[in-house]
Amino acid sequence: MSLSDFFSPINPDKFSPKQGFLTSHLGLKANFFTDRFPELEEKTYDIAIFGVKDDRGAVNNNGCALGSEHFREQFYTLNEGSFTSKIIDLGNIKAGKEVSDTYFAVKTAVAELIKLNILPIIIGGGQDITYAQYMAYENLEQKVDLVVIDSKFDLDEDTEEGVATTSSSYLSKIFLHQPNYLFNFSNVGYQTYFVNQDSLKVMDKLYFDVHRLGEFMPDISLTEPVLRNANMISFDLGAIRSADAGANVNAGPNGFYGEDACRITRYAGMNDKLTSIGFYEFNPAFDRNGQTAMLLAQMVWYFIDGYYNRKQDFPLTPKSQYIIYRASLKDGSGEMNFVKSKRSDRWWMQVPYPTGISKNERYHLVPCRYDDYNTAVNGEMPDLWWRTYQKLS
């Protein structure tokens, strides 16, 4: 089965401005699947964009299947930044006969693109498609760190008979999937009044990282270490306040500001280990003056800008490119090591594997903040270190 079997072509003329694209527009920089499916080879393209025209799993947000077309109208009129992009737009994955057929198509497409070292940007569709995005990693034989930007935890039980999962329950599917290859889950921006306290207890029991919206209001850069730990990201546009992105039935008055959403996606793009990202729940039926489509286009633009500004500074080799700092705990129980990149001033902490867990590596590197290092210098164990160690056990 070929990837071309899953995609329907697009006509760039339908979303180009009346006067045509300017030479600096992304519409003339990107390639498109129009008539003949493109040859996909490693290094030919860096990024592949595709839409998923299925909203059957979207709770109270029918119409988000049409989001990709409206996104393209805004995105391809943006100017290329200070980078030379190699982008292919593969068109759209149509809704399958069953929702599970759509999931299979997304899973297969994402997996094949990752194998070719091409990063897929998914424009949904309901956020339940995150489950298919996650399933793409099943055959890649690696543990997955999943980050979701969302105002709530989507752990509800399925409510519709015959639907594999919904946008309010896909996390349950991921957490319960066997074999389990989810190493860590992080939520960015949940709002407490939308979250069942029992769900918070589940997250704590599993040593997952969940962060309230209020944690990032003083400084949005605090999201960067969380995003830097992700292999895959799912962004629910409902996490953005309705005044900035109202094209989502479930959007509320509180959430991230539009400019903060753009900074978040740029941080995501700069993550060297990130291999896929999905943007979900954009519903053009509620998009006044195309504002949300424009914001989504700018978010993807910033993601791509971040991608082409990756530092490639993961602290492995050579050692001359980073500095190791050591701190001792007050109780004398041990020493903690931190690593700082000379290229970017970003921090990691070394969390040792318990005896016998890993034959090839002595420690696991987890992104952290300078504040975590200060906590250790003051003799206290950072919470992030402890939760990571428990997951390694």
Q: Per CATH, which architecture of the largest domain?
A: 3-Layer(aba) Sandwich
Order of helices and strands: EHEEHEHEHEHEHEHEHEHEEEEHH
Q: Total domains, how many?
A: 2
User: Which stretches of 5+ consecutive residues score pLDDT under 50?
Assistant: 158-163
- Span of the ends, CA to CA: 40 Å
Averaged pLDDT: 92
Please indicate the percent range of residues in DSSP E strands (runs of 2 or more): 15-25%
**Portion of residues within helices:** 25-40%
- CA radius of gyration: 21 Å
Name the shape in a single word.
globular
Q: How many beta-strand runs?
A: 14
Structural class computed from helices and strand pairing: alpha/beta
CATH classification class of the largest domain:
Alpha Beta
What is the H level of CATH, i.e. the homologous superfamily of the largest domain?
Answer: Ureohydrolase domain
Number of helices: 11
CATH topology of the largest domain: Arginase, Chain A
Main sheet specs: 10 strands, mixed
Keywords: Hydrolase, Metal-binding
Protein name: Arginase
Pfam families: Arginase (PF00491)
GO molecular function: agmatinase activity; metal ion binding
Question: What is the strand and helix layout of this fold?
Answer:
Blueprint: E1 7-8, H1 26-29, E2 31-32, E3 47-53, H2 67-75, E4 87-94, H3 99-115, E5 119-123, H4 129-135, E6 144-149, H5 170-176, E7 182-190, H6 197-205, E8 209-212, H7 224-227, E9 232-236, H8 258-269, E10 276-280, H9 291-307, E11 322-328, E12 335-341, E13 347-352, E14 363-368, H10 370-377, H11 383-392
Helix pairs in contact: 2-9, 3-4, 4-5, 8-9
Protein name: Arginase
GO molecular function: agmatinase activity; metal ion binding
Family: Belongs to the arginase family.
